[in-house]
Structure formats: C-alpha cells, structure tokens
Amino acid sequence: MNSLLRKSLSWMPLALLGAAFMVSVPVQADTNVVVVQGAGNGVGGQENSLTRQRAAEEKEQWNDTRTLRQKINRHNEKVFDREAARGDKDWNKLDAAQDTFDKCQQSTNVNAYWEPNTLRCLDRRTGRAINP
C-alpha cells in the first residue's frame, strides 16, 4: 500500500505543475476602452492630470468643430435667404410684366404694342415705353 501511495504521490507534483502552466497562460485583452479614474489620486497623481489634459484638448477640438459647423450653417442660411429673395424678385418681375401685358393689350392707344423681349409696352411711332 505504501508503494502505491508513494507512486501516486510522485505523480502529484508533476500534475500540479502541469495544471499550473495550463491555468497561468498569459492572456491579453484587446480593448479600446479608456478608464477614467474618479476624483481620487491616480497612479502617482499623473494619470488624473493626463486624463484632465486630454479631456480639455478634446473639449477644445469639439468647440472648434462646433464653431465651424455654426459658421457653415449661417453661411448656408444666408445663401438660401439670398436665393429666395432673388426668386421672389423674379416672381414679382414676371407678375408685374404679366399685368403690364394685360394693360397694354386692353389699352385704348392704338399705337401701343407689347415687346416680348424687353417685357415692355412700346409706342409704334416712337419706340418709347408707354404706360397703358
């Protein structure tokens, strides 16, 4: 019995050593998570100041891009308003030209005619613009 116990105990250190190697295989996790420590002192106090500096830089960059986005939006609004105003002017010109055309056609002046290229009512004899 002693020999059986001795044989089984002789294998025990080798088995434990093998199990230790199996368990203690170094494992590294691939992570992109930044851990920000609380208000307490970090490792030597440097970790906290570095994260504060990085946060300040990120905030500055965010503010710069925000300012740039606001400038672009204001510019786009001005361009849109300018184009809308031009569209209104063109619409008003065409509307006024249509009214003038109708008045020119209904005019009692027999020498009045409508010039489609200039959108004006002209006198046949003189070629000058007239108010019908």
Automatic annotation (TrEMBL):
InterPro entries, sorted: DUF1283
Q: Specify where the region named Disordered lies, as residue ranges.
A: 41-64
Which Pfam families did the record assign?
DUF1283
* UniProt keyword annotation of Acyltransferase present: no
Q: Where is the composition biased (Basic and acidic residues)?
A: 54-64
Q: Which residues form the signal peptide?
A: 1-29
Keyword Signal in annotation? yes
Q: Tell me which domain of life the UniProt entry assigns to the organism this sequence originates from.
A: Bacteria
Q: Which keywords annotate this record?
A: Signal
User: What's the protein name?
Assistant: Protein of uncharacterized function (DUF1283)
Q: Which organism is it from?
A: Cedecea lapagei
The record's gene field reads ynfB
